[in-house]
């Protein structure tokens, strides 16, 4: 059991938030460390590597724990990405708010200035947004993600044309391979072969040679630093000095001529959003292209609109199988009992008629909103014989209806009566329960079926046709999770469904593999939905840090003058306090970003200590301030291929690296949720001890333990 010491003299709620957040700091950055969670009662353990799974294993019964869990679950259910950032910033900004309280800053000022500072950062980083309006215009003619990303691996060849040639290479364990330049001690190892990085990402760029002058307002308020990683989303870069242009483009500043840049290649976008997990993004790419092909067949070959519908993509997890069997297939793949194996084989050679049930397929199911007759009391339901008789009559009636309309396949959203399933199997009819709403809707659209609440209410117009039922692969019956189950494929002509089959020989890794796939899919979905991404690699966070430091410096320089003006005009204590404490609060907020960046650098396994990482950050902060244009400094360092940041003694001949991108709204919402949670706990916790009485308490009374 993990525990943290809680100082009762200080803000209890903020300390609890910091303690919870500390448990997930290893999930930030490219070198993530998995955790074994051991149950103290039953001594069972589980391997987790994500924030969501971590919180599922912690004791969150306290009020603060429940609030934290709600914030993480809200972020995950909406975006499926950004939870590690959210958790870490909750801890960093909790410590920042606690420090402000310790320095005597009024609580109301902490809340207002921190909110103001974050809003200012969000406005500032808009200059780092990159438009992606045309990434899907030529999806059929551009190279795939697999073709573009293979240069992340050793033993690759660059063709004389525009593409990349991939040798046969297993894509599993991609994260460990891409970071294999680090030794076990955490120090970089000179191994040029392990850093054969991507050499093609300049193809499809829009270049403009029209000169532009730098806008003064983009040169004023920010201070920035640079990047440190090559394979991760953290601290990577592109090519030169850039400023934001009205169209959302980034303009390069150079002595020769400026140019504009936007991402116009889907594979490049996917590589940038993979964040060190190309194996998952490869599956996402295949699913996207399969959806595009389906949409093209339905709307014609010259379809311009690209419908990436993440609600029509599903996963089927098959633990116990080799990683090489993971693939993407059209249609709906699910797992059924081996008792239906003979039935599935018989259905393979014939067109199947299907009926869709929108609720449970049980005798006692009633639709939502159903009202029982009033003033009627049943006194015989406790008699098991009569219950069995009632269910048997219902089962026989449903089976007769299926026989009448020659239905071979039943898909139900809810649970299915075991007795009905057995009888249907005996009569050569396959019944599958727990089917998602989107699957039912897709089969309704493609087969012409109409969803019904009760099978006894169906008619001929409710039955769909043209569905095929096949087995997925010929594998041993006990291979899947050691249980006698088999995977079946259900599809029909024109159905807009894609299933990603995820396999792993290690059962404990199955959940992690599925989570990673959905994270990559969600990043790409929101990028395409918003038609814009952030320059990644830590550039956004660096800009926030330098911008806050700049604002804090401006407040210090103007503090006396502003304070005098406020006092003369309003004689307000709050106004004078704001002028006095504003730099302090902004500095504490910036310290949260600094901790975030320092942890990222530490988790690259390049820096051996937090102080070493902090020294590197401070060096670039100073360089950004001296440059006169922190935003241009960041973008310039982001673009360098052999800068001091990248050249870590690994190789003197680094090749061009892939651009890194971040999704916009999920990242910003993670920031907002983190600060909102901190300020909520700050303003609602009533356990703050003030006055002189607390100094008389013993250390035992003033300290406690938080068990996680």
UniProtKB/TrEMBL annotation:
GO aspect biological process, one term: chaperone-mediated protein complex assembly
Gene3D superfamilies: GroEL (3.50.7.10), GroEL-like equatorial domain (1.10.560.10), TCP-1-like chaperonin intermediate domain (3.30.260.10)
Highest taxon above the source species: Eukaryota
SUPFAM superfamilies: GroEL apical domain-like, GroEL equatorial domain-like
A GO cellular-component term linked to this record: chaperonin-containing T-complex
One Pfam family of this chain: Cpn60_TCP1
An example molecular function term from Gene Ontology annotations: ATP binding
InterPro entries: BBS12 (IPR042984), Cpn60/GroEL/TCP-1 (IPR002423), GroEL-like_apical_dom_sf (IPR027409), GROEL-like_equatorial_sf (IPR027413), TCP-1-like_intermed_sf (IPR027410)
Descriptive protein name: Chaperonin-containing T-complex member BBS12
Recorded name of the encoding gene: BBS12
